[in-house]
Design goal:
mainly alpha, two-stranded antiparallel ribbon, globular
């Protein structure tokens, strides 16, 4: 939408795109291309934009083809084992009569730099981990305290989804679209639920190992669950995570 500010104030181009078709990387691509196009228009020349490596449609078809490849089939057993292991113990402490979409609420919390700085730097560096590892460890510890027992919990973890290795030869650095991936993780503190720094360190190391155990960072789960005719019914029949 072009918002005209009048002859003395110029105008403003407002670009609105639904999140279902763009992710964070897509906005960088689009704004850089838009800036280059505007610059070319001011100079009276045709915009020369960099080529797109793998178009979105080619990526989608490539995922479907790769999902049925024999190389991915062995992962099915890994995901089935994770989703069926001690399933009675991995359900979240939710009340199906109360914890529904109709009762969803938003809680906003502002964290000071004294909390966020170690989360983003010192703690991940010390344990060769990422901030997501630390946050998921905190979630596992919070659930343990809530339930009063250190049983495993099944959690769906979302990733950025631009996993080029999923489709041989894919190049996604300039591909616009909504890339995402979701896979289940079984968070098991293994009894490391006592208070104290030593317990927290042991819990973080354990959770980090569980997250790293997902084949190819979990990208294969969604391919098998939604695109493989053989594996999809088996995975769909199992109860999924109640926490995302």
């Amino acid at each position: 939408v072009w918002l005209d500010g009048g002859p003395d104030r110029g105008g403003l181009l407002a670009l609105l795109i639904h999140h279902a078709v763009v992710d964070g990387v897509s906005w960088r691509i689009l704004t850089e291309d838009l800036a280059a196009a505007c610059d070319a228009a001011r100079q009276g020349r045709r915009a020369e934009l960099p080529a797109v490596g793998t178009p979105w449609a080619a990526w989608a078809h490539g995922l479907a083809e790769a999902a049925g490849a024999p190389a991915l089939a062995p992962e099915t057993e890994d995901w089935l084992a994770l989703l069926t292991a001690d399933h009675a113990a991995v359900a979240a402490p939710l009340d199906p009569a109360r914890d529904t979409l109709g009762t969803v609420r938003t809680v906003s919390v502002r964290l000071e730099e004294a909390v966020t700085e170690p989360l983003l730097t010192a703690v991940p560096e010390r344990f060769a981990a990422g901030p997501d590892d630390v946050l998921l460890t905190g979630l596992a510890q919070a659930l343990t305290a809530w339930r009063g027992r250190p049983e495993p919990v099944l959690v769906d973890v979302e990733g950025h989804g631009r996993a080029e290795e999923a489709v041989p030869g894919a190049e996604l650095s300039r591909t616009v679209g909504w890339f995402t991936s979701v896979h289940p993780v079984r968070l098991d503190l293994g009894g490391h639920d006592a208070p104290g720094a030593g317990s927290a360190a042991a819990a973080l190391k354990r959770v980090k190992e569980q997250l790293r155990a997902a084949p190819r960072h979990g990208i294969g789960y969604g391919m098998l669950r939604h695109l493989d005719p053989a594996a999809a019914p088996c995975l769909a029949a199992l109860p999924g995570a109640e926490i995302g």
